[in-house]
């Protein structure tokens, strides 16, 4: 069984078998506040030395002037669920799904991930229902991690569906020993937040679950009934469970200043995908970090019609980027933000140092001595990043 998580300094137990030594030299090292030419040494999985200059020590890898960045830190990704259910109602064997997910993230430069698992189910005979799965998948994930089969570092992010029937029962099945680093409050009630425009919800569920008009109307009515019956109880219970688990709390799809004020009162640490400038500005006022999705940033807008990430970035209201549903988008988004801000260090921090800080991980997220040796070697072509190497605690994994 894993040791309880201390969010002032999350332990690395279970990753220890993967540590190694390496020196990357003749590189442009992207530090938190400047880019310097130099070398970086990792011993026993930890950064032990950063040296400026073009010297290439014996046995070092010559990076030929490529960038070296910290490994990317991913707080919210739907990628694991995509591997578990590659098509609607197609259940894939869990261990192969976990391994494929892990390998895919490693190949895109993500070295720390909080795997998002939904808690809270809806039992109905219609197409709007879905069952429990989080506890089973978490058991398999933790068992695989204990055996050292993963390439990167995995934590658990529980997506607490307020508008459901079984949220509190499912949360109760988790303990502080389960590496639950984040609990996010997900309220997908129709006519508010992400789904203020009901057509966005209809497009989503019609494509995912194949609902016709009558089935969609029944689905909306059921969700509204669940919110009326369980909403307040589930929100209060989820807050208590997050505290019991020692998890960082996140809000989801805040839309108004009132939403953000409530988030602040609840002790939310970061806001996932606020849908308006108003909400992002309120987050800034309350000291809540703002996270937006890489697909929104790269595509130039939200597929749901919400505020564009680039608009928030230009206004100085963007702190963290998540790959959301495209793992390869995380590294690309940093280099896109560097063009907007004219500051590569600031841009890289949105996918490394800032998410690590938001999740209260103090042992990673920057190129500093004493931190984990999670490193990326990156070359650019046509202003786009090309990943040339990925190391997790000094061990090459991509």
From TrEMBL:
Classification via Pfam families = Amidohydro_1
Amidohydrolase-related domain residues are 105-394
A GO molecular-function descriptor: hydrolase activity, acting on carbon-nitrogen (but not peptide) bonds
Biological process annotations from GO: organic phosphonate catabolic process
**Record protein name field:** Alpha-D-ribose 1-methylphosphonate 5-triphosphate diphosphatase
Recorded source organism is: Thalassococcus halodurans
């Amino acid at each position: 069984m894993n040791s309880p998580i201390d969010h002032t300094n999350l332990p690395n137990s279970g990753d220890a078998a993967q540590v190694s030594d390496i020196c990357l030299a003749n590189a442009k090292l992207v530090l938190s506040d400047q880019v310097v030419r130099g070398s970086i040494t990792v011993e026993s999985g930890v950064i032990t030395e950063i040296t400026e200059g073009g010297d290439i020590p014996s046995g070092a890898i010559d990076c030929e002037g490529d960038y070296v960045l910290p490994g990317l830190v991913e707080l919210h990704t739907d990628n694991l669920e995509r591997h578990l259910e590659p098509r609607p109602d197609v259940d894939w064997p869990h261990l192969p799904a976990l391994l494929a997910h892990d390998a895919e993230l490693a190949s895109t430069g993500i070295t720390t991930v909080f795997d998002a698992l939904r808690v809270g189910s809806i039992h109905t005979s219609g197409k709007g229902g879905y069952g429990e799965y989080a506890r089973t998948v978490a058991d398999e994930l933790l068992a695989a991690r204990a055996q050292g089969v993963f390439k990167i570092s995995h934590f658990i992010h529980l997506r607490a569906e307020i508008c459901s029937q079984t949220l509190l029962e499912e949360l109760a099945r988790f303990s502080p020993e389960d590496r639950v680093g984040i609990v996010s409050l997900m309220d997908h009630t129709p006519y508010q937040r992400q789904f203020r425009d009901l057509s966005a919800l209809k497009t989503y569920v019609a494509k995912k679950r194949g609902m016709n008009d009558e089935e969609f109307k029944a689905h909306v009515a059921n969700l509204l009934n669940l919110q009326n019956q369980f909403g307040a109880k589930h929100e209060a219970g989820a807050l208590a469970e997050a505290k019991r688990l020692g998890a960082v709390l996140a809000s989801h799809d805040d839309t108004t200043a009132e939403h953000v004020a409530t988030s602040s009162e609840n002790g939310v640490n970061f806001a996932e995908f606020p849908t308006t400038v108003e909400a992002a500005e309120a987050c800034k006022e309350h000291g809540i970090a703002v996270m937006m999705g890489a697909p929104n940033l790269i595509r130039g807008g939200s597929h749901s019609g919400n505020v564009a990430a680039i608009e928030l970035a230009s206004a100085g209201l963007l702190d963290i980027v998540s790959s959301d549903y495209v793992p390869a988008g995380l590294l690309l988004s940093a280099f896109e933000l560097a063009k907007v801000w004219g500051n590569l260090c600031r841009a890289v921090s949105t996918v490394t140092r800032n998410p690590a800080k938001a999740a209260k991980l103090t042992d990673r997220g920057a190129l500093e001595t004493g931190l984990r040796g999670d490193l990326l070697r990156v070359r650019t072509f046509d202003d786009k990043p090309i990943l040339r190497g990925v190391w997790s605690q000094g061990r090459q994994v991509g």
